[in-house]
Amino acid sequence: MYKRLAALALGLALLCGCGAAAQPQKETETVQAAQEMRSTEFFAMDTVMSVRACGADEALLAQAEALVLSLEEELSTTREGSAVYTLDHEGHAELSERAAYLLGRALALCAETDGALDVSVYPVVRAWGFTTADGSYRVPDAAELDALLQNVDYTRVLLDGTEASVPEGMEIDLGAVTKGYTGDLLTALLRESGVESALLDLGGNVQTVGCKPDGSNWRVGVKDPAGEGLLGALAVADKAVVTSGGYERYFTDDAGTLYWHIMDPRSGCPARNGLISVTVVGDEGLYCDALSTALFVMGTEDAIAFWRAHRDFDMVLVTEDGRLLLTPALAERFTPADALRYETAVIADA
Ligand code: ADP
Ligand code: MG
User: How far is the CA of 44 from the CAs of 149, 164, 235, in angstroms?
Assistant: First the structure.
């Protein structure tokens, strides 16, 4: 459904064309060729990604895909030889400028969110079986989690310029921020190449360049975390829209208890603090990605308190008890799906 809505937005864009077609220029003899919406789809970072850009040629789309693949190669926790793999296995690594930038920003956001985001939670995520594709999920016992939590502490990750190191027993994972950062680098590449209208879907992370070619907002579908359909659509331009939800990767035990892949670094267990999905809307993919994970961990009350203290992003929270909470700026931008079964409310300013 979510993908279908994005496709609908593309459909409209295709009908409208862009550039000269949308803005007739009377007095000039030069006829600018109407720019077409071109798109590419590929599998990377464990998900299907699509890039749709107005006026992009095949070479630019290939460059965009190559950029994503090179980031994956560098930041993957599981690819032998990646910078993160080396850091995790050898305790230190020389990072590229961009990987060092990402780690630096991620560490700052771990601090900003008071450890709700913690890049060193990786061994815990693995203990629950969420790092392999084969679905070998399990519930670790308290002693095992206690031992693993001894090495969960982002403040002990050292970054000096491009040199990173972690203490013995610690492993990091930038999975909570990589797709957002990837979206930022992709939008920068497209803009530098002259693209003024684009829609990127990086598996749960949507990033937009400008507005639709006809000048209207992009409409980004937000998935219903408890069902197959959509909660509704957000009208945005030049924004990142990033969702973290318990529905993305999860398993249930024999008693029917649900466990998902977003961990509370304090308990070592899946974060269960009242939220089932968090969508963050803002200018930067990296920031939105970090916050979607961190606010999910914080839970309803702390997420609202964080928003009130920062105000540099907007959010849609879906609570376990059936409420849909929007920050005030989204009230106008959000169109609920028909027959929405959540009780919708706007979060008070203070
Ligand atoms: P996704 O990547 O599935 O779209 P997120 O951006 O929320 O979703 O990132 C979740 C990933 O981040 C997990 O798969 C795990 O590797 C890692 N992770 C889980 N909990 C945390 C946490 N509290 N802090 C940092 N990373 C986390
Ligand atoms: Mg995230």
Answer: 30, 25, 27
Which contiguous run of DSSP H or E holds residue 306? Answer: helix 300-310
What is the CA(176)–ligand 2 centre distance, in A? 4
Residue 196's closest CA among 186, 183, 209, 206?
209
Of 281, 280, 272, 279, nearest in space to 321 by CA: 272
Burial class for 64, CB neighbours closer than 10 Å (0-12, 13-18, 19+) = buried
Tell whether ligand 1 has an atom less than 6 A from the beta carbon of residue 232. no
In degrees to the nearest 10, what's the CA dihedral of 45, 8, 22, 283?
-40
Residue type, 284: E
pLDDT digits (tens, 9 = 90+) for 7-36: 333 322 222 333 333 333 433 333 344 578
Q: Is the CB of 262 under 6 A from ligand 1?
A: yes
Three-state DSSP state, 322: coil
190's tokens: 């497209």
173 lines ligand 1 (CB under 6 A): yes
Residue 334, classified by CB atoms within 10 Å of its CB into exposed (0-12), middle (13-18) or buried (19+), is buried
Q: Helix, strand, or coil here: 195?
A: coil
Ligand 1 atom at minimum distance from 204 CA: 4
Enter the tokens of residue 88: 């995790």
| pLDDT tens string 233-269 | 999 999 999 999 987 788 998 888 899 999 999 999 9
Atom of ligand 1 nearest to the CA of 119: 25
Pocket mutation for ligand 1, best pick of 45, 155, 261, 276 (most atoms within 8 Å of C-beta): 261
127-142 confidence digits (pLDDT tens): 999 988 777 899 999 9
